[in-house]
Amino acid sequence: MGNYTEPRALPGPVLCCGCGLSHPLPGDTTSPGLPSRPELGTCLRLLPLLRQRLHHLSLAPPRACPHVTCHVTCHVTCPPPGPAHVTCHVTCPLPGPAWGLLDSAVSFQSQRSGALGPGLRASHCHLGHSGSTGRETQMPPGQHQAFPIHGAVLAALHTATRELLSLVPGWQLAATGCPDQSPELQPWSPGHDRDHHVRIGRGRTLLLTSSATVHSIHVTEGGKLVIKDHAEPIVLRTRHILIDEGGELHVGSALCPFQGNFSIVLYGRADEGVQPDPYFGLKYIGVGRGGTLELHGQKKLSWTFLSKTLHPGGMQEGGYFFERSWGHRGVIVHVIDPKSGTVIHSDRFDTYRSKKESERLVQYLNAVPDGRILSVAVNDEGSRNLDDTARKAMTKLGSKHFLHLGFRHPWSFLTVKGNPSSSVEDHIEYHGHRGSAAARVSKLFRTEHGEHFNVSSSSEWVQDVEWTEWFDHDKVPQAKGGEKISDLWAAHPGKICNRPIDIQAMTVDGISLSTEVVYKKGQDYRFACYDRGRACQSYRVRFLCGKPVRPKLTVTIDTNVNSTVLNLEDNVQSWRPGDTLVMASTDFSMYQAEEFQVLPCKACAPNQVKVAGKPLYLHMGEEVDGVDMRAEVGLLSRNIVVMGEMEDRCYPYSKHLCSFFDFDTFGGHIKFALGFRAAHLEGVELKHMGQQLLGQYPIHFHLAGDVDGRGGYDPPTYVRDLAIHHTYSRCVTVHGSNGLLIKDVVGYNSLGHCFFTEDGPEERNTFDHCLGLLVKSGTLLPSDRDSKMCKMITEDSYPGYIPKPRQDCNAVSTFWMANPNNNLINCAAAGSEETGFWFIFHHVPTGPSAGMYSPGYSEHSPLGKFHNNRAHSNYRAGMIIDNGVKTTAASAKDKRPFLSVISARYSPHRDADPLKPREPAIIRHFTAYKNQDHGAWLRGGDVWLDSCRFADNGIGLTLASGGTFPYDDGSKQEIKNSLFVGESGNVGTEMMDNRIWGPGGLDHSGRTLPIGQNFPIRGIQFYDGPVNVQNCTFRKFAALEGRHTSALAFRLNNAWQSCPHNNVTGLAFEDVPITSRVFFGEPGPWFNQLDMDGDKTSVFHDVDGSVSEYPGSYLTKDDNWLVRHPDCINVPDWRGAICSGRYAQMYIQAYKTSNLRMKIIKNDSPGHPLYLEGALTRSTHYQQYQPVVTLQKGYTIHWDHTAPAELAIWLINFNKGDWIRVGLCYPRGTTFSILADVHNRLLKQTSKTGTFARTLQMEKLGHGPPGRSHYYWDEDSGLLFLKLKAQNEREKFAFCSVKGCERIKIKALIPKNAGVSDCAATAYPKFAERAVVDVPMPRKLSGAQLKTKDRFLEVKLESSRQHFFHLRSDVAHMEVDGRKYAGAEDGIQVVVIDGHQGHVLSHTSFRNAILQGIPWQLFNYVAAIPDNSIVLVVSKGRYISRGPWTRVLEKLGADKGVKLKEKMAFVGYKGSFRPIWVTLDTGDHKAKIFQVVPIPVVRKKKL
Questions:
Q1: Per-residue pLDDT tens for 700-716?
Q2: Measured between alpha carbons, how far is 411 from 391 in angstroms, rounded to an integer?
Q3: What confidence tens digit (pLDDT) does each residue in 603-650 have?
Q4: How far apart are the first and last CA of the chain?
Q5: Which of 143, 154, 723, 1023 is 20 to 30 A from 162, comparing alpha carbons?
Q6: Where does 1452-1490 have alpha helices with state H?
Q7: 399 Cβ partners below 8 Å, 6+ apart?
């Protein structure tokens, strides 16, 4: 008998290199006329297996690689009676001469003739490359790095070829790299004996071939344990496995991944009395010195992104959705093919309009063949002209209600034509306008292929509902039984419906209250409001009212019954039926993560999987408003499993444990010690791992030192392609170890920090493409603990410790970086109870790492690579760079526990040396969305962000330097080329676990909100500084009445300094009303009284006018007269002002006191003092006041008690030659000692630079030889005057000069029993100065210079009496966008402006003669002004300031009963509401309004 060869060639599929081969072998696997003999039949059975393998083969590709056409040819040869032989050849000609040809060939040969059994061996393995010359280069597997350009392609090609046969049942690869094929291995099957202590020592190399249970396993002294890779699952149960002193444990290898199913189950309780190992503990896999652990599971995609949005319970691809409302009246029929679940035909019959439609309906139904599925339903009305023939025809189909269908009755019906018993039907009477009514039916069917589909029909009258506005109740009647709703109807006519569906109440601060509605005879009679069981006193209330009903008909066909098809970004053919997936939340709550099990799906594309069940929540699968919000989808299943065996409930192996958890938390753990020989884990699932004990984590590299090439590891150590889930203490812990690669790891549902670096010295570790989600609090460290744990676990504190959870604890994070010199690339922090990424600082290394670096090293270490990371669904922040941990034990001096969260500052420098140049921490392509508090809070020296995306965060970004001084003077924080979105199209899901649901700013539709309904959402929050914002776009920030949303804002309740060099340039606004660009705050919810020092001194520089439309201007709070000048322009919507000038800061430190209140007055604005409480707590030994001041001006400083005896004034942000003059109030009889010095804060060195001598002439201030200056003591007024002038140059962003901080120190000898040091009454008008504008206001942008449709309209009104020598004249001045309008006679001038376009509609004057008596001419003029008009009014000369005419001001927005003085200026509005910018100024000598008005004038929606 001759040989028979059956070739099967795969026509070249287009294939991205590394994507795998996914097309079946063509044709049948048999040929007619073949010899009939058993050997050949057995041989040919291999061909369908190969075809199946080719169909399912999938590999994860490199993202960017050329498309390649590959050819696969397999030959099966069955020579009688010799062994069967298989050869598969893969050839991939690559594009371009530089790539050449890649090919791979593997041949396999049976060891015995006849049946193809497990003895099959590889007789030849070839992998080659040929370039354009056609020469071939032999290359052993695994050495692809010899061709750096082709490495990824070669690796993928080799793996594809090898995997082609590796999973065929009964076939094994004996090529290099398959550890279970080593001939030295001895089969081992120890059985099940829990008392069997296994020791695999010198000379023993065992192959575990079946499941086993033992007490423990110790692999040591060169022993080796290998797991056999075959079809039968193997489960190894043991208390622990210890590998050391040359011992090895192998499950697969990097070149030969394990293909079977293998599990290690670590069993045992903590309280069984078993003596724990002093280093590894209990229930562990321990890899000690000289140990090797190699776990290599199947190659599977670790995680990817959803590529199509998944709606809660919604339809998926392959289904049908039909919905109609008004305009589609009548009976609507769908005919559905039962074989495929598809709609064949549909039609509408308007049986309300015509009887002919009724006849046509009968004809249509009769023509439908038997066996078809019919969906019939009424939309709106269908009974008026419905004749008996149609009613009877429907009855014949199986309907019981159609015969009696009435006016506008909802009715739905499903049946199979010819089978009336299959019918389902629902019918309900029309309720009119009283509410919704629905008739719904559904029925499950099965296609000819056995797949289920569900048909649903709903005929409804829908009543939409909406909330009214909030109504304030300051005076609540104390009537028994609550408040009458009828009284509210009378108080607010037309605003409350007759029958509210629901009532809500809350305090003025936004706290929800409980309400109770009492019904009487079907009518709402009264309602009562309760605040913690007591009747409410002052509150707000609103009502849920129904809109008119509307019809709605819905027909759906769901081809995925109780299943869902997920559309994903990557090829997921490596995900198999039975695998478990987790899909991350894309809303604020991390608990919206959902688990799914993969189902078989023949019709799925390579990037699709079908999963069991329906989603409960909305999961985004797209970019929303420019921000990638796609949900991460992670694989939790692997074919190698390491797991802890758990009890069914908690038991207290550690104190307090069961107070926090109701489940067992004593899982298994894997620990690597210093000196291990090799460790590589991939394709492994770890579950129920970790313990609530220090050091016992799912994966723990413990003080292992350098684990990469620096430590002699080749290949370097790695853990990758792991799924670590349902863990009880972290995910991956890197402790005192460097150079570890953690890649493609999914960490899900863990307690405590997930990806954790521990003591501070951990450097050069790389976290690449790791996903962490559902990270919850644990008990181990203060930073792991939540508030309850922080308060209860106090054993590690000093007696008397009072926990402050939000300060000392509450920091659990997905990625906890104790040293900045680590790399995070392509990682996702998709839900933590606190923070996604947290860079924390150990001033000195802690624990067993103590002494590994000098103090302060980590705070100065440059940031590793931080690129393309994302954080969402976290509570506190997506990312934080800030804080440190307490590195000393609890003591009487500091009672907080060891490793509590404390303050720290980050200032990266080259080589971590603060004396070397700064090295900015660069954060690129970071995305943060749906984080409840912050997208990112970043404090430090040079922290720069580029090309980042922030959306739907409570606060997008806060950049901070130092509240008192920048920790690294000369540094700055910066963000550029980035996007901020306030309220995106991702509205979330209204569910019980959403903390807040309320109206959005732009369209007022419902959405999840970050913190509270009235929380002031902001994009960037300025805090201290200096901060630079450049070329950023702000999108969809829109304030509501009651919610002060803004693109730019300032830190809430801020006591610290605000740097005048904070600046913005190149900003763009999209769907951001100009009124919502900035908000400076106002007293009320979230802002409190707005009386902290930083609240009062907020300022930033609008370099190019892209925010304010005034290039070069400074934006400041509207009542900060230390910064303002007479020409500043008010912006009422921002509660701010646009100014110009040169600004700096002075820090005033008052020693030996901390509770003084300081009052500072600018001499040209004595009527507008600024009160400062100080930035520091009252418990400190000194206080610091930090006002922003206008340079080249004079000031006086006063106190609410006796002036401090010791004082230091620091010149901050002064350039050389800049000066201010200061008068400090002291009691009479005080004497002074004053000197100047320069303090270098970095070197902590101080140099005296001069002294001050008293002069009797104010003019001598500032004059004198070098090192000697003067002070002027005006004892009559009690003011000590100094001229403070900077003597040294300053770097651009530095607060202090190049030589250090210039200071003036005052020591005062104050008489005893001195009183309050407030000299304002004697200082003014004696030292008052005329207000002068030193820096003219910039010219406003206009026309094409403006980038948005809305803009500001500049209005200037002034009425004053001016004196020139002995002459007096009255001046009236009115300007609109630079155009002046004048009036000749005494009286009032009026300008009317269109509120839509900003065009002046009219300008007129009304003389005093008209204003006297009943001014009908004025009344008629105002009545004729169109609505939505801005009305400017200014007085001239001696106008009539009283009389009936003033009522027109009330109609235009002025307060009722307004009383005018001799001069008046007024900006009013005629329309349906009173804008915030309506302003009246009146005085005896002068009235002035310089402000902007937003165009178009639009009313903000109400909260």
A1: 999 999 999 999 999 99
A2: 13
A3: 899 999 999 999 999 999 999 999 999 999 999 999 999 999 999 999
A4: 90
A5: 723
A6: none
A7: 413, 415, 423, 425
